[in-house]
Amino acid sequence: MKFGYTRISTRDKQVDDLQRRALVEVGVGEDHIYSDQVSGSKKASTRPGWSDLEVRLRPSDELVVWRIDRIGRSMIDVITTVNDLIERNVVIRSLSDGIDPSTREGQLMLNLIATFAEYERGLIRERVQGGVDAAKARGVKLGRPAADPDELARKVRTVQHLVTNEEQTVADAARMVGWSRATYYRHHKAVGSETTQDFTG
After folding, report:
1. What is the pLDDT of residues 130-155, one digit of tens each?
2. In what residue span(s) does the Resolvase/invertase-type recombinase catalytic domain sit (predicted)?
């Protein structure tokens, strides 16, 4: 299936008509053209027209645009969006830029876009890891907060009470305090010095 996408930053009908005519001339049906009249500062994923189009695209579908910058708000946004489509096996064709996957030049451009996208992801990972390392160096504790020992002991005693006095199985009693059977036994072992009862049920 062949789809088209247009975007204009103002309500300039002539510009939109120009893009639409170009798409229709290469075989895109009018009912398969999606449009947005929004500022270029908005990411592709936040535009209503693009969002409607994106959920309809399937592997091997072809997306035709008048110019590749119609897709994103910035080069990084364009690269990320195009690479996501490539990974979904959506064929991308940009009329004014000469990006045509059936040509060597077009394949080269798409490969470069994919390479830049991977490079950007690598930079993001490095920045995130750098932030984590800096936080650790400042003594910031990351991850899930440590459980309150008193709360753990209370839940262990509750499970023991339910098993001993209410004739509940360990699995059912543990579930009542938000644990699995295995979680109960793990915490029972950790606080065993305070709660000496054990169960095998």
Report:
1. 887 787 788 776 666 667 777 888 88
2. 1-139
Query: Which 3 state secondary structure label does DSSP give 167?
Result: coil
**Catalytic residue list contains 35:** no
Residue 128 domain-assigned (yes or no): no
pLDDT band at 195 (very low <50, low <70, confident <90, very high): very low
- Are 105 and 52 members of one domain? yes
- Among the listed residues 9, 51, 74, 180, the single catalytic one is 9
Domain of residue 10, residue span: 2-119
Task: DSSP for 76-124, please give it.
Answer: HHHHHHHHHHHHTT-EEEETTTTB-TTSHHHHHHHHHHHHHHHHHHHHH
Question: Which alpha helices (H) appear in the chain, and where do they start and end?
Answer: 13-25, 48-56, 75-87, 104-137, 149-165, 170-176, 181-190
Angle at 117 between CA 119 and CA 32, to 5 degrees: 175
Q: Is the pLDDT of residue 40 over 60?
A: no
Total domains, the chain: 2
106 and 162 fall within a common domain? no
Verify that 81 and 155 share a domain, yes or no.
Answer: no
* pLDDT tens digits for range 84-115: 888 889 998 888 877 776 777 877 877 777 67
Indicate which CATH number applies to the domain containing 53.
3.40.50.1390
